[in-house]
Specification:
The protein is α+β, with helices and mostly antiparallel strands and 725 residues long. It contains 26 helices and 21 strands. One of its GO terms (biological process) is proteolysis.
């Protein structure tokens, strides 16, 4: 029996507004115009996420866009209530619509489980029929209605093959197809970041289409790669069965053209040469489908130190690709918060002092620390399926290892989005301290996680000329005390080698760095914490991590044995390590809550953090880094799978505790964001109320392109034949 409550957004779901008014007012007219056009490029590109999520997501978006563009929310509500829809049912309808828009599809951005409406289907249909545009949307609803409400086993969560739904691959693809495609793309030096894979057959042979995202739809060379477009005969090593690969461009072409159009307009208002060159390369990349051109743009982005308006755009994070290598489209525009950025700048200044505190040999650290920009930003625009609290980019290993990266902490996201109305699973004293220090401690964790977590560690590489980027004679694996015999090849990346394991494993490594280095008095002093306040920050940071490991059970699916969220899997692993350390460091007890229902209490002994917790996390972190550095997938996977295992074989019986966690879970906040609107040669900033209706209205007013619905429909119809399940 399916528990429907796990797939709806409850009536208690809240919307937060990401306020950037003060920061935006401080910009010059040139900076406002630059922000406007990159915001527009980001929003248009963000619609790509609909086509990277599920077959029905574009149709659901089109339904709501037509519905709310055709009639104000208040008018629709009055018409629906006149037909017997209750106020509560209409609010559930609005929450569902807001959820689709803020998640860029009908699967949760944080958790990958399906979202279905929290009202009966017949009431949903009454609302649609009450609308002024009922006749216009009737056919659209008929196309998508079955899948909107379906909780068929394969449709409950994102996944590959029989394990779930994805549109990164056609519905007839499985894990074997993903591996074959990766082998082909590695052989041709094609990055998977901006691709999707579609399988068919011709003359008894499997035919795979690797489709590149680009505004151009026809052939020619792929800049930085060469003559790869077209048809290729290929025989995979593992299967030995010949197949055909067709490399094409033009995926999401109409949307990519709108991205290019707006980035081209933004170029005129760039603040310096690095920004102009960055935008030129992005424009080239989104036009041709070339990831090498995007990498070149990222190099100029890294060189653009300390901009007032910070941006990034492209196919970035691979969390939602079931194979872990394809990037979801993302674009953001944000304004620097100078006060908080000063603390992060000092953290960068102290990085070379803090890095040696990490628990791995010096040979496993980068030869030279590449001092990055690290700024705190107030988000003006964040387009994609979800908004993080911090980012370390670019994700290209070769650039991060040898040229550098940037870190950003998204200040207004952290302050607005991470408040909790009720703190579950802690006693009253801990809950009060947690509420008081959650955000300050999280700022410390984000800083350490992004800069010294994602920014640390070396990959050992064998170059094509036979040389190595480490001393083969002196460097050994500390876990075996043996010399390094296996490592990355020159064209291999962390993502392609560790595949679907890579995202969560790396988040776990960065989270461990955060809680390990927050024990440093020097690190805490940078953020203004000394003496008792420092002890409290350490305690709340470790308590927060342990509690997050418990909350993570919401994101585990027992039926498939799959984790649906990379960060939460990572936090569960860390909780397992804390429990394994013993000596009462962490205890988890089943209790009865004030409401008479089953509850859980988690306790952390702050006196044991240094003597018990630190060595346990240090040993685990060292292994995470060693296996990553040498590319030892087998050892890394074996260890990570062990700590990821949710079972009832021994205390605290996590599988049984999961039902209590689900019963007491709280919905994540959705974000309403500003729009920027061009008024002559000036930019107007529009704000919206923090409600589902306000969030919906912001989307109605977001896109000036009058043909957008037609473009989205054409793209949706074009790919329907590939998604037949």
């Amino acid at each position: 029996m399916v528990d429907v409550s796990q797939y709806v957004l409850p009536a208690t779901s809240k919307v937060a507004f990401l306020d950037c008014q003060t920061a935006f007012k401080g910009l010059t007219d040139q900076e406002k115009l630059y922000s406007h056009y990159i915001s527009q490029a980001s929003w248009y590109g963000g619609l790509v996420c609909l086509y990277q999520t599920s077959p029905e997501s574009p149709g659901i978006y089109l339904l709501f866009h037509k519905l709310f563009k055709g009639q104000k929310v208040e008018e629709l509500q009055a018409a629906a209530e006149a037909q017997g829809v209750t106020k509560e049912e209409f609010e559930a309808f609005l929450i569902y619509a807001a959820g689709i828009l803020s998640n860029s599809g009908n699967y949760k951005a944080f958790g990958d489980s399906k979202i279905i409406p929290n009202l009966p289907k017949e009431k949903f249909e009454i609302i649609l029929k009450s609308s002024k545009v009922a006749s216009e949307i009737q056919g659209l609803w008929q196309e998508i209605s079955e899948r909107v409400y379906s909780l068929a086993e394969r449709q409950r969560e994102l996944g590959l093959g029989e394990k779930g739904t994805t549109t990164y691959f056609s519905s007839n693809c499985n894990l074997e197809d993903a591996k074959v495609a990766q082998e082909f793309m590695s052989a041709k030096d094609i990055s998977p970041y901006n691709t999707r894979l579609f399988k068919s057959s011709e003359n008894g042979k499997k035919v795979y289409e690797v489709r590149l995202a680009s505004a151009l739809t026809t052939g020619g060379d792929l800049p930085g790669v060469g003559s790869v477009l077209g048809s290729h005969e290929f025989t995979p090593k593992e299967t030995g069965t010949p197949c055909v690969f067709k490399v094409t461009r033009g995926d999401y072409s109409d949307l990519m053209a709108l991205v290019v159009e707006n980035l081209t307009k933004a170029e005129k208002y760039a603040a310096n040469e690095n920004e102009k060159k960055m935008l030129t390369e992005y424009i080239n990349s989104f036009t041709t489908g070339s990831i090498p051109q995007h990498k070149q743009g990222s190099r100029y982005w890294i060189k653009n130190k300390g901009p007032i308006v910070e941006t990034y755009i492209g196919f970035i994070e691979s969390y939602r690709d079931p194979f872990g290598v394809r990037g979801e489209f993302e674009g953001f525009v944000a304004v620097v918060n100078k006060e908080m950025s000063a603390k992060f700048t000092e953290l960068v200044n102290q990085a070379e002092h803090l890095l040696p505190l990490l628990p791995w040999p010096a040979a496993y650290e980068k030869d030279k620390f590449l001092r990055p920009d690290f700024t705190s930003l107030d988000v003006l625009t964040f387009a994609g399926s979800g908004i993080p609290a911090g980012i370390n980019i670019p994700n290209y290993d070769d650039i991060r290892q040898d040229e550098g990266f940037k870190n950003v902490s998204l200040g207004n996201v952290l302050i607005t989005g991470y408040k909790e109305d009720k703190v579950n699973f802690l006693d009253t004293k801990d809950a009060e301290l947690f509420q008081k220090l959650k955000i300050p401690s999280f700022e410390v964790q984000v800083g350490l996680h992004e800069l010294l977590g994602h920014g640390s560690g070396k990959l050992f590489i064998k170059n094509e000329n036979g040389t190595y980027n480490f001393d083969q004679e002196s460097v050994v694996n500390p876990e075996t005390n043996q010399k390094i015999t296996e490592c990355y090849r020159e064209n291999e990346t962390w993502d392609t080698r560790f595949s679907s394991l890579s995202s969560s494993y790396e988040e776990c490594r960065a989270e461990c760095v955060g809680i390990y280095l927050c024990l440093s008095t020097d690190a805490l002093r940078i953020f203004g914490f000394t003496d008792q306040s420092a002890d409290d920050i350490i305690y709340v940071n470790w308590l927060s991590m342990a509690r997050a490991g418990l909350l993570a059970l919401e994101f585990y699916t027992p039926e498939t044995g799959a984790w649906r969220q990379a960060h939460m899997q990572a936090r569960f692993c860390i909780l397992r390590v804390m429990l394994e350390a013993g000596h009462g460091l962490v205890t988890i007890t089943k209790t009865t809550g004030d409401d008479g229902k089953e509850d859980i209490q988690l306790k952390l002994d702050r006196s044991k953090i240094i003597d018990v917790g630190k060595p346990a996390i240090g040993n685990f972190l060292r292994k995470l880094q060693i296996y990553k550095s040498i590319g030892d997938v087998e050892s890394g996977k074996k260890m990570y799978d062990f700590y990821s295992d949710v079972h009832d074989r021994d205390e605290p019986h996590f599988l049984s505790l999961r039902s209590i966690v689900l019963e007491r879970k709280q919905p994540r906040r959705m974000f309403a964001q500003h729009n920027t609107v061009l008024q002559g040669d000036k930019v107007e900033l529009r704000s919206y109320e923090a409600s589902p209706a306000g969030l919906i209205q912001s989307w109605v007013e977001r896109f000036p392109d009058g043909d957008l619905d037609d473009k989205l429909t054409r793209l949706w119809q074009k790919e329907k034949p590939y998604f037949t399940d």
